[in-house]
Design goal:
By secondary structure, this protein is of the alpha+beta class. The protein has 3 domains: 1-27 and 294-367, no CATH class; 28-117, no CATH class; 134-284, no CATH class. 35% of the residues lie in helices and 12% in strands. It is built from 12 helices and 9 strands. The strands form 3 sheets. The protein has a 4-stranded antiparallel β-sheet with strand order 6-9-7-8. A 3-stranded antiparallel β-sheet has the order 2-1-3. Strands 4-5 form a two-stranded antiparallel sheet. The longest helix is centred in the last third of the chain and has 28 residues, at 317-344. The chain is globular. The relative contact order is 0.14. The structure holds zinc ion (5 copies). One zinc ion binds next to loops. A zinc finger (UBR-type) spans 29-99.
Length: 367
């Protein structure tokens, strides 16, 4: 009766549940609008006016919209059901806040191309299979915490095509790019440029080696780098003096926050590096923890529902699509069988599924 066996189904179910747990670690029952400006996971809704919404709203209010996961942004207030949202969804503007009138949006949200589903200097959509690894700028004051392809960090985007072709590493990092595990934070060349004198001061500080793992030049034209790798392993005064004024990005060493704190404590309060670390980018020393949604005890009710919902809702759509298609075939047959589980909030167990297939076998024999 079915082109899928019970054991295949169970394996899929387990994988789906694991994935759902990974994608949806918290119970989506609280909208963070009233909590105001937070460092939190943000989802762009492309169908409701390219607004950013909180994790819970992405599931409860925008499940049938085209969503783009933006990961964390600092200082963001949920815009679900605010005047930035274009159309009402059912009876309420936000289903969690249940507001009949649109709420006032925050003035501090910074909207950029990410909210249109575009990323990086190359202004592309995210496509997992073809792209080099993407990393986010931890400073973000100029770029609004943009995500960048490693390829585009190295060179101008029209030369970035096929930049992985000659890659010596198999982890989607182009040759000449520092190993991903050799640094902890990344500051893009645009943000470095904006605070150029600050970074100059940092690079010439005697403790710069405790903070900076690499500087990586951004070749605005496709000039072969002087060094074979394109990576300057010894960030120092020498580098700034000897090389041309090419823009460059900075990779921060693990533990850079403590090192920056110690550097700051040794500086005069009038020092521009002190002021930068104190007032402009204090989060480089002590970052606001990402807002965590409270865990809910009925989190593991109906993981089947949770799983399918999470996967349909967005996030890593590409990897989920194959699973969803396979699931869809059996879901139709299973949905009647599973409805009581979903309604009672019971977890579907392997033996339940076995019973279902046994029942099907029995039925087909009877015919
Ligand atoms: Zn919300
Ligand atoms: Zn929406
Ligand atoms: Zn909402
Ligand atoms: Zn790019
Ligand atoms: Zn940046």
């Amino acid at each position: 009766m079915s082109d899928i066996s019970a054991s295949e189904y169970i394996n899929q179910q387990n994988a789906l549940e694991d994935e759902a747990r990974g994608l949806m670690p918290w119970s989506p029952s609280h909208c963070t609008y009233a909590d105001g400006s937070l460092r939190q996971p943000v989802f762009a809704c492309l169908d409701c006016g390219e607004i950013g919404v909180c994790y819970s709203c992405s599931i409860q209010c925008h499940a049938d919209c085209r969503l783009e996961e933006l990961f964390t942004k600092r200082g963001f207030t949920c815009d679900c059901g605010t005047e930035r949202q274009e159309s009402k969804k059912g009876d309420f503007w936000c289903h969690l806040r249940q507001n009949q009138e649109r709420d006032v949006p925050s003035l501090s949200n910074r909207y950029n191309q990410n909210f249109k589903g575009l990323f990086c200097d190359c202004q592309n959509k995210y496509k997992a299979e073809h792209d080099s690894t993407m990393i986010q700028c931890v400073l973000g004051l100029e770029c609004n915490e943009e995500w960048y392809h490693c390829c585009c960090i190295l060179r101008r985007h029209d030369h970035a095509t096929d930049c992985l072709q000659n890659s010596s590493q198999d982890n989607q990092v182009p040759s000449g790019f520092p190993a991903i595990d050799s640094f902890e934070g990344f500051i893009c060349w645009k943000c470095v440029n904006r605070y150029f004198t600050i970074f100059q001061a940092l690079l010439s500080h005697r403790r710069s080696d405790d903070v900076i793992a690499h500087t990586v030049a951004h070749y605005s034209t496709l000039v072969q780098p002087k060094s074979e790798s394109g990576v300057s392993e010894l960030p120092s005064k020498r580098r700034r003096n000897s090389e041309t004024d090419q823009p460059f990005s900075i990779m921060l060493k693990s533990g850079y926050d403590n090192a920056l704190l110690e550097i700051k404590e040794g500086l005069e309060e009038s020092d521009k590096l002190f002021i930068f670390l104190q007032d402009i980018a204090p989060f480089l020393i002590s970052d606001e923890p990402v807002y965590e949604f409270s865990e809910d005890s009925d989190n593991d009710t109906s993981t089947f529902e949770l799983g399918t919902k999470a996967l349909n809702t967005s996030i890593d759509r590409d990897t989920a699509v194959a699973g969803i298609q396979a699931m869809d075939n059996i879901k139709k047959k299973l949905s009647d069988f599973l409805r009581p589980f979903a309604e009672s909030g019971e977890v579907v167990k392997e033996e339940d599924i076995r019973n279902f297939f046994e029942l099907q076998k029995g039925k087909s024999k009877d015919k």
